[in-house]
Specification:
The protein is mainly alpha-helical and 171 residues long. Helix content is 47%, strand content 9%. It contains five helices and two strands. It has a two-stranded antiparallel sheet with strand order 1-2. The chain is flat.
Amino acid sequence: MFTALGFALALFAQAGDPPAPEGSQATLQSCELEAEGWVCRYRVPDSFYRAAPAPSLAAAPAPPATEPPLAPVIASPPQDEPLAPAADPEAVRQAKLIRRCADASWLSLCTPGDRREANALKAAAEAREALRLSVTKLAADGECEQAVRTALEGGDLDLARDIRAFCARAP
């Protein structure tokens, strides 16, 4: 009851405000459900700044005799270029599915099929990590041939290729 009354008062308070000029409000671009909750993206209009009127010369303070030293400017990378290579869309989907549904409670919005797939993907990821751990331990101990053989027996050709290249560079 009080919520409805508060909502009505908020609407009446907004009705008295002058409307914002067209184009000065943010417009909704998209909304999507992520692990943290709903995330909506808005487009904010460009802002125009008006210069203040120039003060009279009599009121202006005198400029300093020496200018202060300028601080060094650190260049940042351009925002248009990605910092990392683009991820595989299927890998991104699988990671989101694992995060959202693998250990989800019964209240989550996951279908039984999603839960089964997420649990299978999680088990496969854990097996890959265990294989990678044993192969890198063998490579660190200097047993490169055994490390490559273990990676190949585990079915991870990319890991075997990486270990072979690592061992070729190592003394």
